[in-house]
Amino acid sequence: MADAVADGPAVAAREGAAGRGSPKEEALHRPLRGFRHGLVAGSLVTGALTGLLFYSWAYQVRNDIGAAGINRPVFWGFYITNFVFWIGISHAGTLISAILRVTGAEWRRPVTRCAEAITVFALSIGGLFPLIHLGRPWLFWFMIPVPNSRGLWPNFRSPLVWDMMAITTYLTGSVLYLFLPMIPDFAILRDRAAVESPGTVRARLYRVLAMGWRGTAQQWHSLEAGIRAMAVIIIPVAVSVHTIVSWDFAMTLQPMWHSTIFGPYFVAGAIYSGIAVLMVAMYVLRRGLHLEEYLTDKVFNNLGLMFVAFAVIWGYFTFAEHLTVWYGSEPSEMTVFWQRVSGEYGWVFWLMIVLNLVIPLAVLPFPKGRSALGTAVVGLGVLVGMWIERFLIVIGTLRFPRLDFTVGTYSPEWVEIGILIGSFGLFGLLYFLFVQAGPIISIWEVREGDHIVAHRLGEPEHVVRVVHAHDDPAPEATT
Amino acid sequence: MPASERWVHAAFATPDEAGAALDRLAHLGVSPSDIEVRSSIPLHDVSAPGTSPRSRVPLMAVVGGLLGGTAAFLLVSLSSQAYPLPTGGMPIVPLLPAGVITFEGMAIGAILCTVATVLVECGLPALGKAPGPLDAHIAAGQIVVAVRSSDLALADWALGALATSDG
Amino acid sequence: MTRWGMVIDTDRCTGCGACVVACHAENNIQTVGEEQAARGRAMHWLRIERHYEGTFPDVRVRFTPVLCQHCESAPCEPVCPVYATYRTPEGLNAMVYNRCIGTRYCANNCPYTVRFFNWHAGEWPRPLERQLNPDVSVRPAGVMEKCTFCVQRIQDAQNVARDADREVRDGEIETACSQSCPARAIVFGDLEDPESQVARFARSERATHLLEDLGTEPSVVYLRGGE
Q1: Which of C116, C120, C144 is closest to A62 using CA atoms?
Q2: At what angle do helices A78-89 and A262-289 cross, to 10 degrees?
Q3: Burial (CB count <10 Å: 0-12, 13-18, 19+), residue A34
Q4: Measured between CB atoms, which of A165, A236, A464 is closest to B13?
Q5: How many Cβ atoms are within 10 Å of A476's Cβ, its own excluded?
Q6: Percent of chain B having pLDDT more than 70?
Q7: In sequence order, which residues have a C-beta less than 8 Å from that of residue B44 and are 6 or more positions away?
Q8: Which domain does C71 fall in, by range?
Q9: Is A233 on the interface with B (CB under 8 A)?
Q10: Helix, strand or coil for residue C65?
Q11: B90 CB near a chain A CB, below 8 Å?
Q12: Residues B49 and B62 in one domain
């Protein structure tokens, strides 16, 4: 590499004409080139699990909803648990990309897109479950407010209709919020593909997705205003979505469901599980795609601190809920309460406490525990713990109705287990495909971050791999 | 485009260099409407002098929110009254649930209006436009300043850049 | 205005179960079979709850037939996203099979657990389909059902009365359960008619409601505490 200062302009001209940014950016372009073994293998495996999802679902549609293990009085089982779980996970993106953007936290730059992708895919999968759990899913459109020959409209008093409006809004918003900041990145990919691989399918795809973006001052101003507005709008939407999902339970009269704390409780739990998924996804991305320069230890550390905060918040809400029920000592509620903490399946509750509270608070307050691997492992535990929490809420209450003549049990059938496993497969598949379609870390936002840092430090620009690259030490603040 | 006027494009490695070129152009008295600055990141400190980009996004977001919220409320109240079915002792037009739906309507209205405004203001999609001659340089992180001028030599001098191209 | 209601005298109920069988026969309720019943999917719109009171040697068994209470302020109604259940002007909690998409939210919000779901479609191997009541639809899989206060009998009596240009008389409508009870423990009629049997029993000192404190305002009155 001839990088003597005298050659600077010539090098810059060469690199510019080739469309190549700084060397560290190559890590972001690599997954987008050709067929990489690891990514293809991952796509196939998750694709197979997705097949399991749709096969199980098809079996259930063909053989009636009775193929699942739900019964009377446990009318809701795995499917609603999974629904709440996946919608909860979708709060990862909103927290990171919206809240951190609005508060001006610069370290969010490498993380926003992988978090927003989690949101979009988790929402899509979560949105499948209300269809999966229906007795007659082909009639789901009765819930959509369109004029029809019956003259009937959906019942807007029902929390399920609120769910539909909220999730539609959140999904639309998240998709657009994911896509808008991708336009300049698609333009970068388009311009580079025009040089490196003109005429290929990829080049044409990027051309369409970039929508003719040119990067003028007016365009940037509008786009940034739009992204800022979306960030502000999407935060209350996210809060409302999981609140409304919690109201599926809180609006009923069921013991230990009819609680005003459910709204904030579920939102806090959702953000908690969202951060957990984000930690796991980031760890996998960092190792799999060699993104150590972007998903640095500092990012994991900061997210780890947020993780601790939400562990405490979750613990607070859980304690408040259980204390209130126990203190009130209402008979129907106490039946559910005692079954939950010390019944035949009481160990499940305590496992949840260990996974959601004990382990995170034992590991994460220490800097060593907030390493990439540490947070990812704790995150995995929290994912299991949060799933258990949803399961206990749904099944724990339904098993013990007020008229205790009809106490029930529940055990899932293979279709329910297949659909649960398959949903993770579908999530993985969507993620693998996304990683191969567009840059998982926002190229322009990281560049902007480096530019801002260089500006603040008064250093010469290292926007492009040119001129001063080898003579000066690399600036420390790349995060 | 008049035959005597063409666009001269120049790529700069850093925003400071691009800013210096813009200063030179300003000294020459080139009108801002004949200058275009393009980059792969938003540049708040470098812009063609005399221009201040504006965006109607905040206003449109509020307008969209109001429209969406009103539409949602009307949907709930009119549809409940169109085929009134009493449920659970609740009123036919339930105000608190209507509040929930109205909130979501406000959100979706604001979101759609914001995105529409961004697309309109950015002139997207604009797939018909041919790519510029130095677009690869933008992808590399450089800044391209384009000048429309009938005096190409002067434009070249003013820009004094890494790479120039007529287009 | 009519308001259909029922009075069940638990001091008279012997727990014989004739009402349960009659309800099955009248309303084309499917017999789910042993395996499905063990899974908790039995469908008895009317069930006899058996409670033991007192300690030996003064033990008493109290039988309480529990059916849909047709609540005035029914918690099951507002949660259905598609209006498959609502309150009719005559005070019935209606169940509209064609509209039901099977979210089962209504069943979750019923504090009396009196709603039943068709996990599979009912099967009546030949010649059993000949026992089906032609006045009542057979529900497909994926649809919720529950006691309707034998709405087909109510409708029939109202049609007959309208043709004869008169009002429905008290005692003219017998639900399947009230008709078959050997102890005459179940009475059905119009609660708004002060002279009807149900209205008079509802004013009795022994009158109670199930889960009164929830505020569901049920249309079924239970008489208890007679001895």
Answers
A1: C120
A2: 70
A3: exposed
A4: A464
A5: 8
A6: 89
A7: none
A8: 4-223
A9: yes
A10: strand
A11: yes
A12: no
| CATH number reported for the structural domain that contains residue B18 in this entry | 3.30.70
With 0-12 / 13-18 / 19 or more C-beta atoms within 10 angstroms meaning exposed / middle / buried, residue A471 is exposed
Q: How far is CA A181 from CA A246, A440, A448, in A?
A: 31, 12, 13
Q: How far is CA A405 from the centre of its chain?
A: 41
Nearest to C142 among A65, A152, A248 (CB): A65
Distance of residue A127 Cα from the nearest chain C Cα, in angstroms: 14
Q: What share of chain A is helix, strand, coil (3-state, %, to 5)?
A: 75, 0, 25
* Cβ neighbours of C76 in B, within 8 Å: 88
Residues B67 and B33 occupy one common structural domain: no
Lowest mean pLDDT among A295-304, A440-449, B136-145: B136-145
Within the 111-150 window of chain C, which residues sit less than 8 Å (CB to CB) from chain B?
A: none
Nearest to B51 by CA among B71, B37, B68: B37
| Burial class for A273, CB neighbours closer than 10 Å (0-12, 13-18, 19+) | buried
Query: Nearest residue on chain C to B97, judged by CA atoms?
Result: C78
State the average pLDDT for chain A: 90
Taking the CB of residue A200, how many other CB atoms lie within 10 A of it? 11
Examine residue B84 and state whether it is found in any structural domain, yes or no.
yes
- Confidence category of residue B161, pLDDT binned at 50, 70, 90: low
Please check whether residue A13 is in contact with residue B163, taking contact to mean a CB–CB distance below 8 angstroms: yes
Cα(B118)–Cα(C17) distance, integer angstroms: 70
Structure tokens at A215: 């990067």
Asked if the Cβ–Cβ distance from A145 to B75 is below 8 Å, we say: yes
Residue A359, pLDDT score: 97
Structure tokens at A242: 């999981």
Please give the tally of structural domains in chain B.
Answer: 2
Cβ distance of C73 and B85 shorter than 8 Å: no
Number of Cβ within a 10 Å radius of residue B121: 21
CA distance A377 to A369: 10
Is the residue at B21 inside a domain?
yes
- Measured between beta carbons, the chain C residues lying within 8 angstroms of A395 are none
Query: Is residue A57 pLDDT above 50, yes or no?
Result: yes
Instruction: Let me know: does A172 contact A100? Beta carbons within 8 Å.
Output: no
Q: B65 CA to chain C: closest CA distance, Å?
A: 25
**ipTM (interface pTM):** 0.94
Rounded to two decimals, the pTM is 0.93
Structure tokens at A132: 């999966």
Among chain A residues, CA nearest to B100: A162
User: The CATH number of the domain where C139 resides is what?
Assistant: 3.30.70.20
Residues of B in contact with A207 (CB under 8 A): 127
Contact A226 B114 (CB under 8 A): yes
Gap between the Cα atoms of B141 and A459, Å rounded: 17
Location of structure tokens 């939102």: A267
CA distances from B73 to A156, A393, C79 (A): 11, 32, 19
Identify the chains in contact with A, defined as 3+ C-beta pairs within 8 A: B, C
C113 touches A406 (CB < 8 A): yes
Domain that holds residue B38: 6-53+131-166
Q: Does B82 touch chain C (CB under 8 A)?
A: no
Please report residues of A whose CB lies closer than 8 A to that of C83: 152-155
Contact residues, chain B, for A168 at CB < 8 Å:
108
> Which of A110, A236, A259 minimizes the C-alpha distance to A173?
A236
Provide the number of structural domains found in chain C: 1
Is B1 a member of any domain? no
Domains and CATH numbers, chain A: 27-441 (1.20.1630.10)
Using the predicted structure, report yes or no on whether residue A343 has a pLDDT greater than 50.
yes
What's the CA gap between A70 and B140, in Å, rounded?
57
C80–B89 C-beta distance less than 8 A:
no
